[in-house]
Amino acid sequence: MILRAFLLLALSVAPALRADVPAAEMPLLPEEVLAASEEHFPSILKALAQRQAALGRVTESLGAFDLVFGADGFDRVDGFYDGTAIGGKVIKPLRPLGAQLYGEYSLSNGDFPIYEDEYFTNNGGTAKLGVLFSVFRDRDIDSRRFGQIDAELALVQAELDVLLTKVGVQQRALAAYWRWVAAGQELAVYDNLLRIALERETGLEREVTSGRRAAIFITENRQNITRRQTLMTGARRDFEVAANQLAFYLRDETGQPLTPDVQRLPAEEQFGVLPPVPTIASLDVPALLEQRPELRILQTGAERALQKIALSENELKPRLDLNLELAEGIGSIGEGGASRDGTDAIVGFTFTVPLERRQAKGKITQARAELESLRQDQRRLEDQVEIELRNILLELDTARELMELAKQDVELSETMRRAEVRRFEQGASDFFLVNIREETAADARVRFYTAYQRTRVAQANFDAATVNLSRLGIDEGF
């Protein structure tokens, strides 16, 4: 009676991996994990929000070239003069030559003092059309064009940051997934090992009762049950920890972490085929470096620094702005006389030159130092990435080799186990050797799953290093 209670307790502590899995419980495959993490993982959503903010800054920078309308006017309500004037102006900034295109219309009525003579118009008003452009300073770049270029480059960096975040998240998601799979397989191995000992207990009781075996065999088997139950408890803990870690990436439709059940473990035949291991000589390392988002972020940062240098150098130049304007009187001659009638063509200029220019020189020094810093970061990162790629390939190749050796060990130990069980059943072996063979075979299988996990993690690291979007489950348009 006590023995039966003990067996029931052992079965309750050891979670069985039953074959009768409900049809609704589909095996959890890496594609599902990758899809969930790409869509719902907070770090990716944060990077997407920052990209949206960068897109908003691009729109904001374009506002510097918006069409602007303004109007003003006045009316003398008392005094010697009774002049009234009203005018409107439309300004459209242009990108070439830092130009501005403008049009004006003004209309006046009444009498003005001589110091306000410019307000006189024909009775139909005066229309003006003009263009203002830069010859030296602001010709190639100005604060408006710099703002737009810088915002567009910042958007490129934000998009690359989204890619960088996705690559990192998907790499870690795959590592968590294969850790969960390996822990689940280890749990299955120790579950099977414990069940063998539990099932053997009944047979041993019959044999002891019939006198075929000594009672000490029952004691030894109970010792095996306790030891295997200890292994089972540890494996269960490791599996639950791995499931909780996987839930960080596996999320439901609302973005909440979803802890996978043991019944969702895939069968070994569902693991998929491992791709062949390339050699470093077969890889186009410069092309791979160009694909790395962190390097492209630094390259874009260098472009932004170059734009800062160009803007600061622009501030060292003298300003010479030319203004071309046509003015046309409309309607009959007004109170200002015939001088407002007809068409006027006007050419004007403004000239200023900075003398000390310390502000611009300081900005140039800062921007050049920033550019040099970014270039050194880029050089360091290129060397680091190439070395990491070599090490990842070495790790991948070694992991594959160790996995194959572990697979051979499983086959050999399983052969030894079966042979020892047959010998024991025929009375040619002892109970101690049978247990040793069973546990050795179980340990070999656990080592195989550990080696397989390391191989899969190394493959995920390689896919991340080479920015293999399809294997990382990342949408090509990201």
UniProtKB/TrEMBL annotation:
Q: What is this protein called?
A: TolC family protein
The protein's matches in SUPFAM superfamilies, at most eight in alphabetical order, are given as:
Outer membrane efflux proteins (OEP) (SSF56954)
First and last residue of the signal peptide: 1-18
Signal keyword on record: yes
The record's PANTHER family line, in alphabetical order, gives: BLR4935 PROTEIN, OUTER MEMBRANE CATION EFFLUX PROTEIN
Q: Which UniProt keywords apply?
A: Coiled coil, Signal
The coiled-coil regions, if any, are 357-409
Q: Gene3D superfamilies, from UniProt? A: Outer membrane efflux proteins (OEP)
**InterPro entries listed in its UniProt record:** MdtP/NodT-like
In which organism is this protein found?
Congregibacter brevis
